[in-house]
Amino acid sequence: MEIKLQEIYDLYGLVEAINDSTYESHSIIVKDSELNTVVLRISKKMEVEVGKIYHFHGKGEVFKDKNYIAVLSLDSLDDDKDMRDDDKRALKDKFFGGIVINEEAYIKDIEDSIDSIENKIIKDITLDIYNKYKNDFIVSPAAVKFHHAYKGGLMYHTHSVLMLGKAYIKLYPHINKDLVYSGIILHDIAKIIEMSDGKFTLEGKLFGHISLGTALVFTSAERLGYSDTEEAKLLAHVILSHHSEPDFGSPRRPQIIEALIVHLCDMSDAKIQPVVEALSRTKPLEFTEPIQTNDKEKFYKHKLSK
Question: What is the CATH number of domain 8-96?
Answer without folding.
Answer: 2.40.50.140
